[in-house]
Target: histidine kinase
Amino acid sequence: MIRDDKRVPVPPNDDDAAADPADSADSADSELSAMTDPHQDRLMIVRGRDRRRTERTAMPDDVPAQSPANKASEQERAAHVREDAADLRDGLADLREDAVHLREDAATSREQDIGTAETKQAASNDHMATLLQANEGLVVSTIEAHILTEQLQATQAQLEHAKLAAEKANLAKSKFLSSMSHELRTPLNAILGFAQLLEVGSPPPTAAQTVRLQQITQAGWYLLDLINDILDLAVVESGKLSLSLEPVLLIDIMRECEFMIEPQSQQRGIQISFPPFDPAWQVNVDRVRVKQALINLLSNAVKYNRENGTVEVRCSRVSPERIRISIKDSGVGLPPHQLEQLFQPFNRLGQEHGSVEGTGIGLVVTKQLVEQMGGAIGVESAVGVGSEFWIELNVDTMPHLATGNPLPAKCAPQTRENTMLRTLLYVEDNPANLLLVEHIIEDHTQLHMLSARDGNQGIALARTHIPDVILMDINLPGMSGIEALKVLHDDPITAYIPVIALSANAMPCDIEKGLKAGFFNYLTKPIKVSAFMEALDKALACSEQN
Model:
């Protein structure tokens, strides 16, 4: 670089004094540099000065002054530079303004971001609190569910225990009733059996004796009815009632019921009518149980009727699937509040102190029997007019022959014209029962009776004498009647002999068990002499065929 103190002086020029374009440009550059970067203010100004000095120093002393054209060009260039500088200043101002706006926007955006972040954080905190609360609730619910599960399991265990206890109680009750029935039926068999023999004995009883005998038999049969009702109620309540549904002609059932209720109605002077109906109607029922239900309703219609009253029994087809049997009496009738209590066990509806005997069990058993056969029962009553009980039974529509009154075995009775001696073996450990049967058959000279006190003795006598018919008690010492029957059936010598069970075990399950074991018939104590002789005749007829 050429130092300032060695520069060649230039003579003053008016044009130079007026305006040096280079100086103007350098001045503008210096100003621009100062405006552009305040921190480099000195440096840029020095650079401008150095530039002028350099340019001026480089000019030889003998260079002639610039021409007007050159000056104009320099001035024009300086003007452009000034314009550029102005533009730059304007641009810098805009940049500053933009920078201010950017800072403001950045501040606003930062505030918004902070606000958004705070909002999100608050929402996140709320969500977290909600989750924590939900989790706490879930934990509580889980604990409560666990507690409820334990309580439910405990309740189920208690129910199961209660169920087992109830089943044991029912079983114990059934065993007790069965045992009690057996113990009551055994003496009743002797009481009623000998009373029946006295009524038909020779010489015949006097009028006074006849009245007394009637009182004995009536009380005995009533006691038997009570025993049967209690047993039936126990069986029905236990749910172990066994029914044998089959197609039966309705007219046969109604004739049997009419025959059975006639003595009771005649005794009280009650007139019973059975209007005719289609004899081809048949119902799907248990023959024994439907008669039990109808006899109970007929008996109530007679017992609770007025003196010389009436009972009307009608059978009608109420639908293609149902037959209704209605029993209408002329009794005192029942008020509505008593109708609601009619089918409650042991509820006699205020008749406890009346003259009519009863237990309040019969209607309950009747309702259960009818409903378990698929039927229905109902009643309509008016005080002072009477009551009408009805049952509806299912019609049997299958194209098969309805059954009549079946025999207990395949052999049909035949009239015997010969008088050959027949042997009857009775296996029984109760002396009164042995004596009763001995007295029953003593007028039948063609019958000879052997007796045994236990099963083993009975089997030995059967193998020795080959009797025509065997009567067998069930509860025997040492060996039961069913076990003795099996031994007899397994022996070819005695296998064909008809064996009749004669037992005080009168529960339906006992009867069913005996018939399945192979007894020719199953009679329960106390016996009716006429029914006993009928069963004995059928067994003797079967023995003849064998």
Remarks:
- Confidence is low (pLDDT under 50) at residues 1-61, 400-418.
- The two ends are 164 Å apart (CA to CA).
- Residues 422-545 form a domain with the Rossmann fold fold (CATH 3.40.50.2300).
- The chain is about 55% helix and 15% strand.
